[in-house]
Design brief:
Ribosomal Protein L4, Chain: A, 6 strands
Length: about 210
């Protein structure tokens, strides 16, 4: 069992949670975690870089002049890659770098990433995140109270527009509902900030999967 303190947005400890590592897979599965991180970065690649090959540029396909008897070097058509205005010899083409992974493996990788953060004391739990209106200053004050100074991923149980709008302008701070969490995004941030409700949701899902 791991004891984890729960704070309010003023930075005061209000309670503690006992977390069973088995709910997060029991141990960190590093090979699976690496596979998930590679998938995350591969799926972020756009792959739209492209050039025109000799079959795509405008111009006649007729041989410019006969092969022999002119005194010039032999030459093909106007589209050849060695002439100005011709196509690229090894033209880049649009490609998809995306990778896939089964849903169960994605969840196991996500839980391994959370457990790795937990074992390194990089997870902070807050009892709730609620704001009467969107205001970035309020959330910055909350981060300062919770002593979160570096990049942070905020995990909430359900989408809250006021919380989202309060966070979106803060550099190196991102927000995601629990259903959208993935291992790559978790590992790309130094700290994780969970609401108590969001963390319990992840743990309950893990226990259900174990059963």
């Amino acid at each position: 069992m791991i004891d984890l303190a729960v704070y309010n947005i003023q930075g005061k400890e209000v309670e503690s949670l006992k977390i069973d590592k088995e709910a997060l897979g029991g141990s960190v599965r590093y090979p699976l975690l690496k596979q998930a991180i590679v998938l995350y970065h591969a799926n972020k690649r756009v792959g739209t870089a492209a050039n025109k090959g000799r079959g795509q540029v405008a111009g006649s396909t007729k041989k410019l002049y006969k092969q022999k008897g002119t005194g010039n070097a032999r030459v093909g058509n106007k589209r050849t890659g060695i002439r100005v205005g011709g196509g690229n010899i090894f033209a880049k083409s649009i490609r998809d770098f995306g990778k896939q992974m089964p849903k169960k493996q994605k969840k196991l990788a996500r839980n391994s990433a959370i457990l790795a953060k937990l074992l390194k004391n990089n997870i902070v739990v807050v009892d709730e995140l609620k704001f009467e209106k969107p205001r970035t200053r309020d959330f910055v004050n909350a981060l300062n109270n919770l002593k979160i100074e570096r990049s942070c991923l905020v995990a909430i149980n359900a989408v809250d527009e006021n919380v989202y709008k309060s966070i979106r302008n803060i550099p190196k701070v991102t927000i995601a509902p629990v259903s959208d969490l993935n291992a790559g995004e978790i590992c790309s941030c130094q700290k994780m900030l969970f609401t108590k409700e969001a963390l319990l949701s992840v743990l309950n899902q893990g226990m259900e999967n174990n059963n």
